[in-house]
Specification:
The protein is α/β, with parallel strands linked by helices. The protein has eight helices and twelve strands. 35% of the residues lie in helices and 26% in strands. Helix 3 links the parallel strand 2 and strand 3. The longest helix is centred in the first third of the chain and has 22 residues.
Length: 228
């Protein structure tokens, strides 16, 4: 697949692991196991970068959608845990369109005990096409956690997403945002899908029949953390 109107960040240099993984992600469409493995690799790459930017003395709260939890988010989580006290929050967002835009209310959530003391918030998402899901998940946490920085982490973002998200918050909150990504795409389909993005809608690419909020889906990460 030819990639058009894509810009890479400094983290995805030509010939490097990040750019290779982005290409492998598109090639893995139709193979959920390979797709998941590649998304985990991208999470590890991004997680290493985020971990290096956060002082080792700072505790972290990593927030994720349920569909991203076991692959992208786990890659980030395992990188953060190497040097930082890290807690996890997982949200089941019911994402749907309404006249003039879309909304993504949280219908279920998992908050790992002790998350309230975190000093850094990390928001993970496989692809950011607008502000809807990320905005909702930040709002779910921002009044409960007094953080110094909010890292918004994704393999691929749409070119207008950062500006759109910043407009949704006060200057005091928006000034804490740090965006870490590998690629910026400028095109969208008529239904809002970023092109080439991550190759389509994440649910089907991971082998899920529907949004986790509409089905009895429990991420392995949540099972692991809830068992302690």
């Amino acid at each position: 697949m030819s990639i058009v109107r894509r810009e890479y960040s400094a983290l995805a240099e030509e010939g490097g692991a990040a750019r290779s993984a982005l290409a492998a992600l598109l090639d893995a469409r139709g193979n959920p196991a390979q797709y998941a493995k590649t998304m985990y690799e991208l999470g590890s790459i991004l997680g290493e970068r985020v971990a290096g930017a956060i002082p080792k003395s700072d505790s972290c709260l990593l927030a994720s959608t349920a569909e991203d939890a076991d692959y992208l988010t786990r890659g980030i989580y395992e990188s953060l845990k190497l040097d930082h006290a890290t807690k996890a929050a997982v949200f089941w967002n019911h994402h749907y369109s309404v006249p003039g835009g879309s909304i993504a209310p949280v219908v279920h959530k998992f908050l790992e005990p002790g998350y309230e003391s975190s000093k850094t918030l990390v928001i993970a998402k496989a692809v950011i096409s607008g502000s809807c899901v990320v905005r909702t998940n930040i709002l779910e946490l921002i009044e409960q956690v007094n953080v110094d920085k909010i890292y918004i982490v994704s393999p691929v973002m749409h070119a207008k997403s950062e500006q759109s998200l910043r407009k949704e918050f006060s200057e005091d909150v928006a000034s804490k945002f740090v965006f870490i990504y590998l690629a910026i795409d400028s095109e969208k389909t008529s239904d809002g899908e970023v092109v080439p993005g991550i190759g389509g809608e994440i649910y089907g690419l991971l082998g899920l029949p529907d949004q986790p909020a509409r089905m009895s889906f429990m991420p392995k990460l949540v099972k692991q953390l809830a068992s302690f």
